[in-house]
């Protein structure tokens, strides 16, 4: 919206006096900060109303597993679908502050909302049936895969070939593997994997949202640098025109995430649910594909990878040998079973996320 005001001041003579005032909205850094503040204020202001509304509608709230840690039984009755708060703040902030003519913005928003709808329906089934099983896992993955594949096709068409279909290897300035149109499948795998990895991480109060914000802040910086010809040339990273605008979305996520954390901090007043975790994971994955930093996502989002791998290893081990590697999966439950308190796990995982983000960002210069 603010970006439109700039163009309007340029075309309407009566508004020419506003040109110098509105010119500041051309700067991505300024609009990223504006999106961050807007997202936080929106969730702070409307968060209590959303929580009350969801609690009234859901009644018993999110079902708590009886075979899980006994400490979780005290959370019974807490409403879920808190991702609606984050997505609302994200969309409002993005519409207000991002350039509406930038296709990358709409592709990432489409993936985010598409995954959010899938997660919302899953949460809806869990709440209404008071069961841990939503709709069939293979159907959910199929829907996510279709959304991600369409998005990757659009991203490939937007870029310049053969670079748009290439996988860039970190630490090397000129090494890229051209995957051809298979890159769309690979990119879809990254997006779906990121969505479900964040979903698996969302098991403790505040555990998922802070690492998501850390990753969003990191990719906000990467997007800004990748979309800037001068900075990308200095850092010897691949320039992708237009992706700088994705920093505004990352700022919106950071602000909305801070607002959500206010209500999600232990003891949580609301859970993120699949509505938020799938959407935010899909968003991170689609941004990583857009800026050609898919491998760096595995480093910055290493905590999410660890959570997902712990589940895969646990299931594979049990099916093949009948034995479990971890006391419980995902791995944050394993540490609960070892006697770690919930705040210990959450804060230590936050620290790990910061360290991984710094490691991922170091790849921008170590080339």
Q: What can you see in these coordinates?
A:
Helices cover 67% and strands 2% of the residues. With 367 residues, it is mainly alpha-helical. Strands 1-2 form a two-stranded antiparallel sheet. α8 (209-226) packs antiparallel against α10 (246-264), α8 runs parallel beside α15 and α12 runs antiparallel to α15 (342-362). The longest helix has 31 residues, at 28-58.
Distance between the ends: 38 Å
The helix/strand series, from N terminus to C terminus, equals: HHHHHHEEHHHHHHHHH
Q: Number of DSSP helices?
A: 15
Major sheet strand order: 1-2
The percentage helix is: 55-70%
Radius of gyration: 21 Å
Q: Beta-sheet strand percentage? A: under 5%
If you average the pLDDT, what whole number results? 88
Largest sheet, strands/sense/barrel:
2 strands, antiparallel
The total strand number stands at: 2
Give the CA-based shape: globular
Structural class by helix and strand composition:
mainly alpha
Unreliable runs, pLDDT <50, ≥5 residues? Answer: none
Produce the secondary structure layout.
Layout lengths: L1 H10 L7 H4 L5 H31 L24 H15 L5 H27 L7 H22 L7 E3 L7 E3 L3 H20 L7 H18 L2 H7 L10 H19 L8 H18 L3 H7 L1 H20 L9 H7 L4 H21 L5
Antiparallel strand pairs: 1-2
Helix pairs in contact: 3-4, 3-10, 4-5, 4-10, 4-11, 5-6, 5-11, 6-7, 6-11, 7-11, 7-13, 8-10, 8-11, 8-15, 11-12, 12-13, 12-15
């Amino acid at each position: 919206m603010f970006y439109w005001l700039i163009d309007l001041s340029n075309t309407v003579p009566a508004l020419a006096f506003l040109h110098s005032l509105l010119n500041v909205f051309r700067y991505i850094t300024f609009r990223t900060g504006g999106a961050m503040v807007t997202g936080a204020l929106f969730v702070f202001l409307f968060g209590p109303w959303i929580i009350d509304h969801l609690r009234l509608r859901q009644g018993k709230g999110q079902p708590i597993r009886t075979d899980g840690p006994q400490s979780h039984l005290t959370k019974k009755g807490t409403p879920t679908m808190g991702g609606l708060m984050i997505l609302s703040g994200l969309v409002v902030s993005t519409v207000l502050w991002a350039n509406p003519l930038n296709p990358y913005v709409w592709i990432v928003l489409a993936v985010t909302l598409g995954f959010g709808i899938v997660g919302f329906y899953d949460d809806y089934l869990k709440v209404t049936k008071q069961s841990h099983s939503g709709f069939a896992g293979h159907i959910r993955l199929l829907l996510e895969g279709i959304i991600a594949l369409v998005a990757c096709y659009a991203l490939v068409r937007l870029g310049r070939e053969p670079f748009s279909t290439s996988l860039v290897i970190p630490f090397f300035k000129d090494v890229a593997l051209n995957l051809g149109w298979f890159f769309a499948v690979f990119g879809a795998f990254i997006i779906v994997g990121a969505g479900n990895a964040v979903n698996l991480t969302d098991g403790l109060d505040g555990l998922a949202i802070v690492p998501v914000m850390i990753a969003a802040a990191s990719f906000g910086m990467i997007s800004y640098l990748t979309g800037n010809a001068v900075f990308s040339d200095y850092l010897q990273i691949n320039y992708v025109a237009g992706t700088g605008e994705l920093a505004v979305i990352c700022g919106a996520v950071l602000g909305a995430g801070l607002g959500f954390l206010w209500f999600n901090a232990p003891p949580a007043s609301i859970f993120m649910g699949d509505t938020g975790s799938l959407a935010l994971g899909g968003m991170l994955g689609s941004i990583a594909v857009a800026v050609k930093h898919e491998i760096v996502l595995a480093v910055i989002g290493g905590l999410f990878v660890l959570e997902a791998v712990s589940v895969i290893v646990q299931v594979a081990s049990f099916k093949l040998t009948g034995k479990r590697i971890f006391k419980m999966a995902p791995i944050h439950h394993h540490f609960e079973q070892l006697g770690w308190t919930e705040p210990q796990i959450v804060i230590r995982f936050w620290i790990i996320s910061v360290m991984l983000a710094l490691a991922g960002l170091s790849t921008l210069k170590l080339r």
